[in-house]
Amino acid sequence: xxxxxxxxxxxxxxxxxxxxxxxxxxxxxxxxxxxxxxxxxxxxxxxxxxxxxxxxxxxxxxxxxxxxxxxxxxxxxxxxxxxxxxxxxxxxxxxxxxxxxxxxxxxxxxxxxxxxxxxxxxxxxxxxxxxxxxxxxxxxxxxxxxxxxxxxxxxxxxxxxxxxxxxxxxxxxxxxxxxxxxxxxxxxxxxxxxxxxxxxxxxxxxxxxxxxxxxxxxxxxxxxxxxxxxxxxxxxxxxxxxxxxxxxxxxxxxxxxxxxxxxxxxxxxxxxxxxxxxxxxxxxxxxxxxxxxxxxxxxxxxxxxxxxxxxxxxxxxxxxxxxxxxxxxxxxxxxxxxxxxxxxxxxxxxxxxxxxxxxxxxxxxxxxxxxxxxxxxxxxxxxxxxxxxxxxxxxxxxxxxxxxxxxxxxxxxxxxxxxxxxxxxxxxxxxxxxxxxxxxxxxxxxxxxxxxxxxxxxxxxxxxxxxxxxxxxxxxxxxxxxxxxxxxxxxxxxxxxxxxxxxxxxxxxxxxxxxxxxxxxxxxx
Length: 525
Fold this sequence. Notes:
The chain has helices spanning 14-17, 24-28, 30-43, 45-56, 112-130, 158-173, 209-216, 220-238, 265-272, 288-305, 313-333, 397-420, 429-438, 441-448, 454-462, 472-479, 486-508; strands at residues 3-6, 10-13, 63-66, 73-74, 78-87, 90-99, 139-143, 149-152, 178-179, 182-184, 195-199, 207-208, 247-250, 255-260, 344-347, 355-357, 363-366, 372-375. It is α+β, with helices and mostly antiparallel strands. It has 3 domains: 21-199; 207-245 and 285-478, Aminoglycoside 3'-phosphotransferase, Chain: A, domain 2 (Alpha-Beta Complex); 486-518. Helix 14 (441-448) packs antiparallel against helix 15 (454-462). The protein is globular.
């Protein structure tokens, strides 16, 4: 039986691949692309050492070594390269973190890697100045694909630090954009991709929550500490009101502004899978409604562009009806009093591998700041993964009740932290979160920020508030309001799926005749 390798998931057969909702053909390309990136970075190990020395101002007597690639770490979007520095008798470790272009739609939309890194660096710079109560890895320096490099001023000569203090005071006095602590630091050494040089968080700080999650997740004392820590983290980010929906952006003049589109994890994953971009890099929102409309349009585009989006005509009608309902119901869950802000910083991809904890599950470090955005207050919610289930796995009454129990326990800690924290706004955060739960609005917002769970979440949690269940006849009727010429769209999507299956068979060598291009896919929209 022929198998193909998937990144981080091992081998997969045609039978298994054909039952997946995701575009497996796209995902199969990640393996060679990742291997190629590893090889390029390994070939550039001398450059990596040179950049590390450059940002840290190492002396000639210090030695720098890139550890073997088998010790490199890889997440969903980045490769983390351990770099070891020896200075006399001391030995320190750092992490050079490189985005993976093939996971960030770089080939479809050149510049996306830099966009992602500028947003992440902007968040680091903002949190260093504003959220000193949240422990994050120290960012020593970074570089973009335009060969511009920047280093934290504490690693620069005294006269540069002194000058920056003066300029920062002047910028503040004149009410200019915030001047960060990072300074231009040109070098002739360049990597084939953007990068960040970060502090290595080791076992002395703690370990990833995911490492001990299964062991201690039922321990009520540890759960309480974890809930308290997460609540504090969420409130620390949300305590400063933001004027628009968007993401922080680091500029070449070393200022940081909230001027990038809200680059959430879901947006990036959809674009990387081939969804046409409808939210441009400089698009920010001062009102919630256009943001919601554009997010639903993004999901519309995903349905139209993904060749494996539907498996039959009934499923296609369901998908179209779901998107019609999201637009129709949006006014129910956008609060008029909050529609024009203020908006709040939130982690759009927060999970158990993003935080370090000690043995007692006190949070000791937040290690991942990508995908932090200023979003509507209605999107603030209790992390669903605290149940141990995926968002589309909360279908049984038992799982739902478990989530509600955990939610109630979490909200006790959240309310306590909210009382203790000095907020820069008067938004009643705990009350809004409770009201979103009672109104089922929390599930509406989950739909917007999900990659592929929209259909299940809407039908299981939102629709029952209005109707016991949506019959196929009702879905077909609703789908006609999604687009004109609904029947032709269904034909096109079925042809897309047929073509996709032929291509998938070809990739797995499952007895195709090579006539891939002649499948009935020539039905234009």
